[in-house]
Automatic annotation (TrEMBL):
Alphabetized GO MF terms: transferase activity
Domain Beta-lactamase hydrolase-like protein phosphatase-like residue range list: 2-109
Protein name, entry field: TIGR01244 family sulfur transferase
Pfam hit, one: BLH_phosphatase
Keyword Cell cycle carried by entry: no
Matches recorded under InterPro entries: BLH_phosphatase-like, Prot-tyrosine_phosphatase-like
UniProt keyword Transferase present: yes
Alphabetical keyword list: Transferase
Gene3D superfamilies, per database record: Protein tyrosine phosphatase superfamily (3.90.190.10)
Length: 143
């Protein structure tokens, strides 16, 4: 269920409480929720995921991303969350796409090679082409 973006970052479609235990077993230390609250009736509310994650000894952060796109604040928050975690990270949203795109932008901001970012995302089953120009700009040192 969790798709590997790098050695320490995984993306996933919406998780439920059962996936918290799976994440813990896989060594996940931080769960990043990229889904806005109330996006659909069938999603597990973020506060429930947060409580279960914390009860399992994992950190949790919410960086909600709507379909309106990505802001610099969201990219910065994702980059900060990824940098501060010493353990593997699981980011989720409805399908995992927004989490992957935000990861890609954060990694570009950190100076990773855009082609490498795109290849890792593709291996996990995600396409970063919707934000590829922004990835290229961030990797080149633009804000």
């Amino acid at each position: 269920m969790f798709r590997k973006l790098s050695d320490s970052v995984f993306a996933s479609p919406q998780i439920g409480l059962a996936e918290i235990a799976v994440a813990r077993e896989q060594g996940i230390g931080l769960i990043i929720n990229n889904r806005p609250e109330g996006e659909s009736d069938d999603q597990v509310p973020g506060p429930e995921i947060e409580a279960a994650a914390r009860a399992a000894g994992m950190d949790y952060v919410a960086i909600p991303v709507t379909h309106a796109g990505f802001s610099q604040a969201q990219v910065d928050a994702m980059a900060d969350a990824l940098m501060r975690s010493d353990n593997p990270v699981l980011a989720y949203c409805r399908s995992g796409t927004r989490s992957t795109l935000l990861w890609a932008l954060a990694r570009a901001k950190a100076g990773d090679n855009p082609a490498t970012i795109a290849a890792r995302a593709a291996t996990a089953g995600y396409d970063v082409s919707p934000v590829r120009p922004l990835i290229d700009m961030l990797a080149a040192g633009g804000d």
